[in-house]
Sequence to fold (319 residues):
Amino acid sequence: MLSRRSLLILGVAGAGEVVAGGGVSLAYASAMAGAEARISTGSSTIQTRFGTLEYAEAGAGRALLMIHGTGGGFDQGLGFSRPLTDRYRVIAPSRFGYLRSDYPHDPSSENQADAMIELLDHLGIDKLPITGGSAGALPAIAFAIRHPERCSALIAIVPASYVPGRPTTPGPTGVQGSAMTAMLNSDFLFWSALNTVPDLLIGTMLATDPALVKLASSAERERVHNILWDILPVSRRSRGLLNDARLASNPAPMQLDRIRVPTLAISLEDDRFGTYEAARHLAASVAGGKLVTYPTGGHLWVGHDAELFDEVDRFIAAL
Fold:
């Protein structure tokens, strides 16, 4: 994951120069005002032993915990699970280092899972299914392993988890590492890239073929556009992004054989982050694990949003 983002940095470094000109300041200010307004309402916070934890809720019915992926926050979690909110009470936290959630000394997947237990205690929820997407699948898997008494099912969507035998992916160092950190802390650089090289961002940061997006329905194109633009303000997510890059680039093996709850793993064969093999490994390692795959769609499952969440709904309903 990090190496692909390194490619992204090469294109972003000069993006500010490209968009410089009349009206840029107003356009940037308008975009940032909209982004800040979008995340300033609709969420709450609690205090945990890891610091402040932000969360939001939507929908009604059976409770479902939705753990967002890289570049997210509570807003991404709610966005991903929108197809389910007519049937479920979706609880979407912001993981460590995202938006108003603190970044503790040890932001491991295991500690992220433990923080979710404190959230469930606060909400008075004893047990529920947990869904994690991309890097968010790591704490979701850790939750199922560490807290089986609080987990009724595990759903991992495009999981950025361990695959035996996969070569390690070295992260960028030196100039590239510094450039990445600078971009993830600069709302202007990221906004510039959104306006000048969106296909590069879709292909690298979102690990999805831009040509596939162009051929998709208008609703799917809008969904991808929203996921990308909703990363703003990136500066409010930078610590979480960098932590995800560290954890998901070289994911550690997890004790999958300890998972005793019904497990569903979903991925796409052309996901540029290679989660297809991760999903296969997860489903094969858990007793009774179920695997659902699609041949195309990339990391954002383009063209399969409705049927993917229909699979999730049927899986939970059958519990």
User: Anything to note?
Assistant: Strands lie at 44-48, 51-58, 62-67, 88-94, 128-133, 151-157, 263-268, 290-294. Residues 1-19 have pLDDT under 50 and may be disordered.
